[in-house]
Specification:
about 180 residues; two-stranded antiparallel ribbon; about 35% strand; globular
C-alpha cells in the first residue's frame, strides 16, 4: 500500500505503509484537514509523531516546514517502513526514530514539543497514554488526537484543554492546547 505526501517539499511523493494490521494510516482527507488547520504552527516546529506507523503524519509535518520530528513506533514492520520512508525522502537529519511503546518512551523522556500528533490504533485508543504525553508539550503547545468517530474524546487534563473537535466520518480529531503558564 502506498501513501501520498499531500503538500510541501515532499508533496506528491509516495511512501510505503507496513504490511501489518498493527497500524491504520490516517486517511489523506483527514491528514489534509489536519494540516490545513495547523499549517501556521507547523513551520519551524519541533513535532512528536506518537504511534507513528509509516510516518505519514510526521513526514507531512516535515514536508510542510517542521524543523524536526520525533517518531515513536513499537511495531517492527511499521518501524522498518518508517526507516525506509525517512531515507526515501532524505530526511534523516530532520528526524529521530524511536522503536518503543509510546507509554514507556514518554515515561522516560523530558523533551519538549511545540506540536504532538497522536494517532493510536482505533481498536486500542490508549487515551491515558495520549495524556501522559501532555507533560512533553511546551507552554501554549498543541496536541492533536486522532480517534475513531465513535464516542467522545477526553476533555483534557493538567492544564491542557480542548480547543477544537472535528469529525470526518469514521475518524475524528481533537485539538488540545497547553495553557501558557
Amino acid at each position: 500500500m502506498k501513501i501520498r505526501i499531500i503538500s510541501g517539499i515532499y508533496g506528491g511523493r509516495n511512501i510505503k505503509a507496513p504490511d501489518s494490521n498493527a497500524t491504520h494510516p490516517m486517511s489523506e482527507r483527514v491528514r489534509n484537514a489536519l494540516f490545513n488547520i495547523v499549517s501556521d504552527e507547523v513551520k519551524g516546529a519541533n513535532v512528536l509523531d506518537a504511534f507513528a506507523g509509516s510516518g505519514a503524519v510526521g513526514l507531512e509535518a516535515l514536508s510542510r516546514g517542521a524543523a524536526h520530528v520525533t517518531f515513536v513506533e513499537r511495531d517492527r514492520q511499521a518501524s522498518n517502513a518508517l526507516i525506509d520512508n525517512v531515507a526515501l525522502l532524505h530526511a534523516e537529519h530532520l528526524a529521530t526514530l524511536v522503536h518503543a511503546t509510546v507509554e514507556s518512551w514518554a515515561r522516560t523522556n523530558d523533551s519538549q514539543f511545540d506540536i504532538i500528533l497522536v494517532d493510536p490504533p482505533y481498536d486500542d485508543t490508549q487515551f491515558s497514554t495520549a495524556f501522559l504525553l501532555t507533560k512533553l508539550l511546551k507552554p501554549n503547545g498543541l496536541m492533536v488526537l486522532s480517534y475513531s468517530g465513535r464516542g467522545e474524546a477526553p476533555t483534557g487534563t493538567n492544564g491542557v484543554v480542548v480547543v477544537d473537535n472535528r469529525s470526518y466520518g469514521t475518524a475524528a480529531l481533537a485539538f488540545y492546547r497547553k495553557k501558557d503558564v
